[in-house]
């Protein structure tokens, strides 16, 4: 996979992670004007957020190696976090849509990657 | 109880350090961050800034034969022999993709630099209409690490980078709600919003900011921490020759000796290294101590993703008799742990080994750093506009006014000067004497102009007017380019010249962002006027006591 797509997949997974982690916090979930989540739902969001946060490092480290991969992975995580926070604070609903788009696109990239390795 | 009090005092003193250290260093650090972020794309900006060179390229650097390169080195040597037969240094750069011409650089006995571009076929100086003399994107890089002030600038940048590290650490200490407010950004809430913006941009990008500040210092470790070098070596040059496993540096002997034909040296060097050369240099030409070096061509694919620099190979010759003295093959790593550690930090800072994706990542995170600094400086004044803290007694209002003016000039003023540099590049006639220097002088003049504007106009109007000017300069840049050179965005895209197109697309995007901020500022001002302004805001708006 080209470098750009690997980095994009890392960015998308981290974007999703940041989104889920913030939604797991009651004060941010409240920005959506929905009924508050129960504790178990919050825990689910937080756990999946952490899993995705770690998973986002995988393609980056695979491409660059552990040392550079960690640096660039943290960079992408920061960028993803900034993008998410700005969008979610300005337009929460559009941000939710972007989260869905990021999920689909990220999944597609992961599948392409797996498929490419299989070939 | 005592412990609680102590902690409170500690936080308070850290808060004082963060506020005032951050404010004073912020003006310089914003400049370092903004120009550093722009400098990530230095070669692409140079490419945009010198359209003549590209259009009149007579050779294709990728398909040069060895005999063609030899002929070019001969032409370069002939020119240098005439201009500076005895000097401190010569360098002949062979045509590359970015510079399809012969590039000559030299230093006279007093180490004053000179430069000239030659036509690669005729060996004659390139006429003005074939080469726009410009520092290009390197102007931003030089602003970034030395503020165009040479060694003193490097020291100054290092000093402020240290303050940045202090500000980062003290900022972490005084931020009580790092995790609770991790995702909190409330817009249109005045002071609260500025604090949120400052917190979010710092906390989220903290790993990058720490890394970039620390590795930035490590790049110049030999300048900032030279003591060991001076204690253990008579001459710093000896330190470097030992490090690079080269024969020791030789001082000038004062005995005259001609430089032999560099053509043979080039051929021998290329043969030895097994790849084309990019540069041939001579140290002390005209002296019997003269040494010539041949540098192998850098291969970006080979260096891709490698933290430890592999090196493109170099060969050293005695320039008075052409004998080989030393060489290092391409890919031969210098086996020295301390040196490798410094190389790794250097590469992490430069990020020039990961292609455009990594460049964009660094550019955006660098801008986030600039936002972090700017929002801190603005927060300082927003807080005091609401209610004066009387730090300076009767002079407080006057000091605040000065701080506000410096904030405006350092933030929007610098942004105007940076985009203005692109305008200067297109508007300054081609045949102006020392044109590249004039471009930079005009850059500083423009920046100073924004400072005067900030002093003379009420603060909020100055912010708005400068943002508006910045937005117009950004949005009109493609049109200016079209009028002055005939190149335009569409033709760049059609010809898939993405480097030039990228410059203009980025300018357009930044222009739109600035327009959005102007609109936001105007709405807030209108709201403030509607809410029966307090005495403090009237004072702040007039900027007088």
From TrEMBL, chain A:
This is Iron uptake protein. It holds the Pfam family DUF3325. The chain crosses the membrane at residues 6-24, 44-65, 71-90, 97-117. Keywords: Membrane, Transmembrane, Transmembrane helix.
TrEMBL record, chain B:
InterPro entries: PepSY-ass_TM (IPR005625). It comes from the Bacteria. The chain crosses the membrane at residues 20-41, 152-174, 211-231, 360-382, 403-424, 436-455, 467-486, 498-518. Pfam families: PepSY_TM. Keywords: Membrane, Transmembrane, Transmembrane helix. This is Iron-regulated membrane protein. It comes from Methylophaga lonarensis MPL.
């Amino acid at each position: 996979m080209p470098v750009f797509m690997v980095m994009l997949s890392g960015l998308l997974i981290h974007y999703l992670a940041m989104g889920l982690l913030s939604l797991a916090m009651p004060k941010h979930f409240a920005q959506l004007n929905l009924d508050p989540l129960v504790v178990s739902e919050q825990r689910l969001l937080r756990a999946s957020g952490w899993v995705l946060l770690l998973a986002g490092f995988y393609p980056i480290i695979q491409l660059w190696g552990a040392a550079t991969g960690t640096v660039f992975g943290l960079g992408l995580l920061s960028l993803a976090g900034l993008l998410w926070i700005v969008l979610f604070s300005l337009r929460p609903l559009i941000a939710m849509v972007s989260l869905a788009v990021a999920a689909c696109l990220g999944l597609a990239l992961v599948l392409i990657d797996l498929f490419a390795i299989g070939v | 109880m005592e412990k609680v009090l102590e902690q409170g005092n500690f936080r308070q003193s850290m808060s004082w350090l963060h506020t005032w250290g951050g404010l004073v260093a912020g003006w310089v650090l914003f400049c370092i961050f903004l120009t550093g972020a722009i400098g990530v794309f230095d070669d692409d900006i140079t490419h945009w800034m010198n359209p003549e060179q590209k259009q009149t390229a007579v050779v294709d650097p990728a398909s040069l034969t060895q005999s063609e390169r030899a002929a070019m080195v001969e032409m370069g040597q002939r020119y240098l022999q005439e201009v500076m037969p005895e000097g401190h240094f010569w360098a002949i750069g062979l045509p590359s993709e970015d510079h399809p011409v012969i590039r000559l650089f030299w230093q006279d006995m007093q180490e004053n630099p000179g430069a000239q571009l030659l036509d690669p076929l005729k060996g004659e100086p390139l006429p003005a209409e074939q080469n726009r003399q410009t520092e290009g994107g390197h102007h931003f890089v030089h602003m970034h690490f030395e503020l165009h002030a040479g060694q003193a600038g490097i020291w100054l940048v290092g000093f402020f980078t240290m303050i940045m590290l202090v500000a980062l650490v003290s900022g972490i200490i005084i931020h009580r709600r790092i995790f609770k407010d991790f995702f909190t950004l409330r817009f249109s809430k005045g002071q609260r919003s500025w604090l949120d913006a400052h917190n979010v941009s710092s906390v989220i990008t903290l790993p990058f900011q720490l890394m970039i500040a620390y590795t930035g210092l490590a790049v110049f470790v030999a300048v900032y921490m030279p003591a060991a070098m001076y204690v253990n070596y008579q001459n710093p040059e000896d330190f470097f020759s030992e490090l690079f496993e080269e024969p020791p540096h030789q001082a000038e002997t004062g005995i005259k000796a001609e430089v032999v034909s560099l053509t043979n040296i080039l051929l021998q060097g290329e043969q030895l290294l097994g790849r084309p050369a990019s540069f041939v240099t001579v140290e002390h030409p005209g002296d019997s101590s003269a040494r010539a070096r041949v540098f192998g061509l850098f291969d970006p694919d080979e260096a891709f993703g490698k933290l430890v620099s592999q090196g493109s190979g170099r060969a050293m010759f005695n320039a008075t008799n052409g004998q080989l003295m030393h060489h290092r093959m391409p890919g031969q790593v210098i086996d020295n742990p301390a040196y490798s550690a410094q190389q790794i930090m250097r590469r992490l800072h430069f990020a020039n080994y990961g292609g455009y994706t990594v460049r964009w990542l660094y550019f955006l995170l660098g801008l986030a750093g600039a936002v972090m600094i700017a929002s801190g400086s603005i927060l300082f004044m927003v807080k005091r506009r609401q209610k004066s803290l009387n730090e300076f007694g009767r002079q407080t209002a006057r000091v605040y006014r000065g701080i506000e003016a410096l904030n405006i000039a350092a933030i929007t003023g610098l942004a105007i000067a940076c985009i203005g540099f692109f305008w200067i590049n297109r508007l300054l006639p081609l045949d102006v004497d020392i044109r590249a220097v004039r471009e930079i002088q005009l850059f500083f003049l423009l920046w100073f102009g924004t400072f005067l504007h900030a002093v003379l106009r009420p603060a909020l109007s100055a912010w708005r007017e400068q943002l508006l000017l910045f937005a117009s300069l950004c949005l009109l840049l493609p049109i200016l380019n079209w009028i002055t050179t005939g190149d335009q965005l569409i033709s760049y895209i059609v010809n898939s010249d993405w480097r030039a197109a990228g410059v203009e697309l980025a300018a357009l995007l930044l222009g739109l962002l600035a327009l959005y901020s102007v609109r936001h500022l105007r709405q807030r001002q209108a709201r403030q006027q509607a809410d029966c302004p307090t005495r403090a805001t009237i004072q702040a708006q007039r900027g007088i006591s």
